[in-house]
Every structure is written in C-alpha cells, then in structure tokens.
C-alpha cells in the first residue's frame, strides 16, 4: 500500500518532467523523436545524476524500464495534443504562449518538488541519514538535474540558475521532508508535504515575481566587451 | 585474430568520431589545441559515459591511452589537411560547405554505428545480457554520447535531438547486433552487420530527408514570448 | 602542519574558482542565488568530476561541506562588492570591462593551477601512481572541469576549448608536479611549483597573446551554410 503510494508519486513526477521536456522540445522545433528523447531525459536525468553521485550501478532507470516507458508515452501524447490543437492556436497567439509558458512552469514545479523529495529519500536509504548536508544536497540535485540536462541540451540557461527562488524552493521542501522523517512522520505524508512546499514556493515566486537582487543591466552593458579582455 | 578485428573496428570508430570533432571545431573557429580536445572528447566521450553508467572505474580511456592517442593524431592530421587546402577552397565556396557538411555527417554516422555496437557488447560482457532494455539503452548512449558532448561543448543542439532518425538508427543497429549474438552468430560478423545497419539507415535518412512529424514553425512563432510568461 | 598547508592551497583554489563563477554569473545577469550556484559549481565541479571518474562515492564535496560553504561565501561577498561599486563603474565603463575581464582570467588561472595539481595528487593517492597517463589526465580534467561546467551552464564555449594554451598550461603544471613527487620533493613545495607554473604559463599566454594556429575565418565564412548540408 505504502509502496504503491510512493510509486504513484514517482510516476506523477516522471509525467510532469516528461511534459516539461516535451514542451521545451516543441518550443525548440524538434521533431517527434527529439521531443521524446528530451522528455525522457528531463524525467530520468535527475535520478540518473543521483545514482552516479551515490555510486548505484547500473542506475535505476536502466534496471526498471517503467520510468522511461511512462516518460516516452507522456511526450508522445503531449505531441499529439499539440499537433491537433495547433490550428486552433493560430487564432489565439497570445493565448498560446501564455498557456504554453504557464504549463512548462507548472510541470517543472511539480517535477522539482517530487524529485527533490525522492532524492532525499534515496540518500537516506543509502545510509547517509546522519549526513544531513549530503542528503539534502543530493536531494536538490536530483530535483534540479533533469531540468538542467533538458535545458543545457537545447542551449538554454537552466531554470535553476535563472528562476527566482528555484533552488531555494527545493532546499526548503527537501529540508521539511528530512525533518518530518527525522521526527517519525509517515513517509507518504512527509513526501506529500515536502513536495507541495517546494511546488507552492515555486509557483508563488513565479506569480508574485519574488526576486533576489542582481547587478542591474546598465552596469553590465559594457560587459559585452569583457571577452575582448580575456 | 578475433580480438584484432574487434580492435580494428574500435579504432575505425575512434577515427571517425575524432574527425567529426575536428570538423566541428574548425567550423567553430577553435585553434589547433581546441580542435584536438574536441576530437578526443567526441571519440572517447561515449565510452566514458558508458563506463560511468556501468560503474567501471577508472574508465577505459584512462587505462589504455591508445584511444586518446589515435583520436589526437586524427584531429591533428585533419587540421593540417584543412589548413593546406583552405586556399583552394576560397575558389569553390559552395563546394567547401557541402563537402564539409557531408564529411561531418559521414564521420558521425560511422562512429555512431560502431560505438552503439561496442556499447552493447560492453554491457553484455558486464553481465547484463539478460536485461535487454539496459543493454540496448547503454549501447545507444555509448553511440550518441561522444557526439552529444562534442555538440554541447560548442553550444550546438546535439545531432541525436535534431537529426531525423538518428536515435532510431542506433536503436535498430544495436537491436540487430543483440539478436545476432543471442542466436550465436560470430561476434565480428554481428558487429559489422549491426554497425552497417545503423550507418545505412542514418545515411539514407539524410539523403532522402526522412522526417518525423513536428509542430510547424508558424504555430511556434509566438513561442518566442514563452520565456516572458515563465 | 603539512596538512594545514595543503588545505590552505585547496581553499585558495576554491575561492579563486568561486570568484570566476560569480563574475560569469554577474556578466550573464543572473540573480544572487544563480550567481552563488554558479560559483559553487565552478569551485566544486572539477573535484566532482574527478571523484566520479575515480569511483569515489559519495564525492568529497558532499562529505565535507567546507568547500561548498567557502565557495558560497566567496560569491556572496563578490556580489556585495560588485553591487556597491556598480555606480562608481558607470563613470568608468572601459575600466569596468577590462578590470572585470582581467579578474575573471586571473581567478580562473589560479583555480586551474591549483586544481590540476590536486587532481594529480588524488589520483596518485588512489593508487594510480604507476599509470602516469591516467594520473595526469585526471589531474587536467580536475583543473578544467569546474570552469567547463560553469561555462556550459550559461551557454558559453568553455575556456579550455577557446583560450590559447589553457590545456597545455595545465598539462605542463601537472607533469612538473608529478615529476617532483616522483623525485621525492616535499609535497607542499611540489604543489606550489606545479600550480605556479600552470598559472604563469596561462597569464603569459594571455598577456602576449600566444596563439596556436587556426583555420582563418575567411575560409570558414561559407561554413555558415554547413548545417544545410547535414
């Protein structure tokens, strides 16, 4: 029962990240196969990096094909829906880009929350419970890894470097999950709370444009010439 | 004897991928050293990723320097040839770009076919014969990995996301090799058939522009504004 | 005592690479969090890749948080200094870009020298002393790895593919360190000499524009059309 619930959470995260990859691929004008590969990469990349860091060989995604299959199916369905509805979208251009952008943001936030928590769980099960730093760090990398590979492969700066609060949301969600497990809260409840917390912080930050400070672009305008001095 | 033949196939793949890296580097205006590094990365990257995934430490490319040496020599020779023939090419501009593009495509197709089969072989020898999914997946990643690193390092979207049928060709070649071994066909013959199959599908797809469907660019025109909504 | 000195060298390298990441992040208009992540990635990426290659699980950066903490602090301080001094820089535009570019170059050169030597040391301690090829190769990858991840994540071609002599400097520094250890020179002295050698070659190459040959851009002008022929 518990295992079924945990597995369901994993599958929701897989679908969400696969969808984010499919949307990125459509945006980048990839064909059906390219979109599928990008969706599978987004959905399995975080777990792959986690397994490499923790030394689990071969990585889980190769041992149990279910994640790749679910991710591939998700992207194919997303492609078909996008293909069918494209003519409709010609007439509502602004509508499309806002829907599209919101959907990518939403899917990525769901995946981030779920995979960060799964990463923490895997590190704890791997015997690193005592090392909170390692456990949380591996969790966050699991959360951001799939999206990172997805974005780097198509030449975009990854969300976790650009989006306000992205990394912070994963850190807070992972930490809350870690503490709940430490105080013996039921695993499924703890996973749900940790994932939801990451998800909500991400979406609120998006909606209300919570920003961290940066050096204004005016001061950087002349940086275009930096390369000449390197 | 058999070992010599297998080793020869490996070296052909190494030369082909090193050449593809050299051509990418020349295209990107890298200097001799940059081109050499890119060639070595393309030639050894697939095997490196394979060894990391299967947990072989340290990766083969560090243990036996022959692959790095062959790849470096290949790129230096390619550079010298390009350097000498550049003046000739000034006079035949269209000729150069079509020759150049075809050559990169050809070299990449040879490398893809050979490395996919070598990846499958390594996974089988690593004791994963029973798990066909893992074996084929690792094979394909070995095939596409070198080209992926080559393209990501210079800021290009990798071939396996963009080129028609690229991934599919590696999948069909790997699968045919796997089945031939399963039915006790001689390894060298099986490797040759598997590699040739990948190579031929890739080239035919290139020549006849076999395309998978994608969402037409008109529907995506307004996606330029997607980022604003994230 | 010896350990304290070696640790100090490591921390200097960590600070230098973190600074290079912070400067890249400011240049790319990332916010405070993005800059911090990029700085930590630059400072710990080389060691992370080294540990993955040598099969040390979990990688050192997760086991001992000191490197991440030092790198994060460095980037935050760099951000604050840049934030405070930006108004000053409005008035001295050329000054800013040349200062900025020189500083990024300098920080990267210090990090490269130190991490290449540390990589060689780790490979030797890991029992690979006899295999000079592996030891030096792993050293160089440790040196260039952090900067590679830093640059790829923000969509730039990494220094080690573009900068004159970059790879060669790391190779010469690593080799000198390796030979000094082989002839029983004190480790701290050997590390200092190896790091300084890399650093000096890098800076001299930068200052005097030591260049390796490349195919002139005129010959490559028509390569813009290469993609059409693939």
Structure overview:
The structure is a homotrimer of 230-residue chains. The first copy, chain A, is mostly helical. Chain A has one domain. In chain A, helix 2 packs parallel to helix 5, helix 2 runs antiparallel to helix 6 and helix 5 runs parallel beside helix 8. The N and C termini of chain A lie far apart (59 Å). The interface between A and B is large, with 45 and 44 residues.
Oligomer: homotrimer
Count of DSSP strands of chain A: 0
The low-confidence parts of chain A are 219-230
How many separate helices of chain A? 11
Biggest chain-to-chain interface with counts: A-B, 45 and 44 residues
Global geometry of chain A: globular
What can be said about this structure in brief?
Chains A, B, C: It is a multi-pass membrane protein. Chains A, B, C: Belongs to the UPF0126 family. 3 copies of one chain form a homotrimer. Helices cover 81% and strands 0% of the residues of chain A.
Provide the fold topology.
Three copies of one chain form a homotrimer.
Chain A: H1 2-27, H2 32-54, H3 60-63, H4 66-90, H5 93-128, H6 132-153, H7 159-162, H8 166-182, H9 187-207, H10 217-220, H11 226-229
Helix pairs in contact in A: 1-2, 1-4, 1-5, 1-6, 1-9, 2-4, 2-5, 2-6, 5-6, 5-8, 5-9, 6-8, 8-9
């Amino acid at each position: 029962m518990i295992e079924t619930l945990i597995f369901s959470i994993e599958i929701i995260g897989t679908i969400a990240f696969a969808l984010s990859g499919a949307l990125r691929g459509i945006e980048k004008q990839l064909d059906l196969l390219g979109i599928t590969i990008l969706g599978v990469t987004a959905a399995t990349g975080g777990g792959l990096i986690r397994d490499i860091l923790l030394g689990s060989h071969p990585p889980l995604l190769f041992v149990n094909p279910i994640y790749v299959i679910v991710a591939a199916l998700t992207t194919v369905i997303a492609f078909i829906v996008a293909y069918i509805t494209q003519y409709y979208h010609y007439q509502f251009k602004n509508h499309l880009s806002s829907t599209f952008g919101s959907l990518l943001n939403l899917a990525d936030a769901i995946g981030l929350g779920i995979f960060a928590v799964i990463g923490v769980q895997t590190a704890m099960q791997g015997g690193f419970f005592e090392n909170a730093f390692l456990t949380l760090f591996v969790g966050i990398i699991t959360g951001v890894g799939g999206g990172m590979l997805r974005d780097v492969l198509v030449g975009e700066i990854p969300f976790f470097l650009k989006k306000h609060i992205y990394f912070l949301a994963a850190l807070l969600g992972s930490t809350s999950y870690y503490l709940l497990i430490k105080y013996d809260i039921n695993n499924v409840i703890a996973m749900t709370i940790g994932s939801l917390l990451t998800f909500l912080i991400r979406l609120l930050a998006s909606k209300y444009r919570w920003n961290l400070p940066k050096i204004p672009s005016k001061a950087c305008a002349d940086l275009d010439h930096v390369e000449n001095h390197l």
